[in-house]
Design a protein that fits this description.
The strands form three sheets. Strands 13-12-11-14-15-17-16 form a seven-stranded mixed beta sheet, sandwiched between helices. A six-stranded mixed beta sheet has the order 1-5-6-4-3-2, with no helix packed on it. It has three domains: 62 residues, Nucleic acid-binding proteins (OB fold (Dihydrolipoamide Acetyltransferase, E2P)), CATH 2.40.50; 55 residues, no CATH class; 162 residues, Vaccinia Virus protein VP39 (Rossmann fold). The protein has 373 residues and is of the alpha/beta class. It is 24% helix and 28% strand.
Length: 373
């Protein structure tokens, strides 16, 4: 059925940014550049047994929530998927995707998923960009391939980063390269890309973690969360595989902070023994792959009273939530829009040990105390 043109009524947006409709034969069909409530003429380019993918030919009915995308390469560049949706709709789409993934993958139908917190800046928020160069072209890969899309300026990058992009375009390297552009003062590998939204995420994590004797900060990086929460805990144990990140975390560590270099799998069991489980909060911020089966097994051997899970991939988060659900209740889930205009979703979730559910230790947020001087 490839290269067949047909009319599609778009009902929702899939994780990744493509609109979803149903073909005449009942299969779902994904097509980028569309919004819920729109009718579109599409051309099927990939046909599978249970679904298909299509390219947009033209729009027949437009959503009132469609806006003009300011980027001239939107739709080609693989970086942004939602510039054509008004910002409130973007937030609604991403929140609904978290709910749907928790239901479909996690088997959790009644999770308290809060409305996504908006980024303080919808544009010009990225203080770091990784671009590719080839001959005189500088930009990002195409949405469908590794073909380079030449980009003169990126509307989600800060002015400083775009100035570096212009300089790179004026003096591109002779050989193909991947180059990271950073705003001045942005640490290599340790900083948050969207500083304003990162602060919202940190506040959310702080409310969920509250206070206790021990905080085990797994995948702690350079201690972004630990250093904001250290006044709320008698002791903090951070675990991180990157030696550079660990060195950075140790630079400004207080006496109650210890940062361990190594894998979470290797150190999580010992870390969780450092205080009674009832007085321990575990914070995990894994890569997009989520928690390994071994890590989850080690956590459940001595489950702490609270588990705060920060995720950049709601699908793997939902998978892990299902594995944790035998021991934990999902108290609440708070998405934060770290990457406006894109399909990326960041969230924080609070898991409460089932024996603790309903207690005063459950979900009562604690105010932040100022960090020691």
């Amino acid at each position: 059925m490839s290269n067949i043109e047909t009319t599609l009524a778009i009902t929702k947006i899939a994780h990744g940014g493509a609109g979803i409709g149903r073909l005449p034969d009942g299969r779902i069909c994904f097509v980028h550049g569309t919004l819920p409530g729109e009718r579109a003429m599409v051309r099927v380019v990939k046909s599978k047994k249970n679904h298909a993918e299509a390219d947009l030919v033209r729009l027949l009915e437009l959503s009132p929530r469609r806006v003009a995308a300011p980027c001239p390469v939107f739709g080609e560049c693989g970086g942004c998927a939602l510039q054509h949706a008004d910002y409130d709709l973007q937030l609604e789409i991403k929140t609904s995707q978290v709910v749907e993934l928790l239901q479909r993958i996690g088997g959790i139908a009644d999770a308290d998923v809060r409305a996504m917190l908006p980024s303080p800046r919808q544009w010009a928020y990225r203080n770091r960009l990784a671009v590719h160069t080839h001959r005189k072209e500088v930009g990002f890969f195409h949405r469908k391939s590794h073909q380079l899309v030449d980009v003169k300026s990126c509307p989600i990058a800060t002015d400083e980063v775009n100035a570096q992009l212009a300089e790179l375009r004026a003096n591109p390297p002779r050989q193909p390269a991947r180059i990271t552009l950073r705003a001045q003062g942005t640490a290599r590998g340790f900083s948050q890309v969207n500083e304003g939204a990162a602060e919202l995420l940190a506040e959310t994590v702080g409310d969920m973690a509250a206070s206790a004797t021990l905080l085990v900060d797994a995948y702690c990086g350079s201690g972004f969360f630990s250093k904001k929460l250290r006044a709320n805990f008698q002791r903090i144990l951070g675990i991180e595989w990157s030696d550079g990140a660990v060195r950075k975390a140790r630079e400004e560590a207080l006496e109650n902070e210890t940062y361990i270099e190594g894998s979470v799998e290797a150190h999580i069991s010992e870390a969780l023994l450092a205080a009674p489980a009832s007085e321990t909060v575990l914070l995990v911020d894994p890569p997009a792959e989520g928690l390994s089966a071994d890590t989850i097994l080690r956590i459940l051997e001595r489950p702490p009273a609270r588990l705060v899970y920060v995720s950049c991939d709601p699908a793997t988060f939902a998978r892990d939530a299902k594995k944790l659900s035998g021991h934990y209740d999902v108290s609440r889930v708070q998405p934060v829009d770290m990457f406006p205009q894109t399909a990326e979703i960041e969230l924080a979730a609070l898991f409460v040990l089932k024996s603790q559910s309903g207690s005063t230790f459950d979900i009562a947020p604690q105010p932040h105390r100022p960090e020691p001087a």
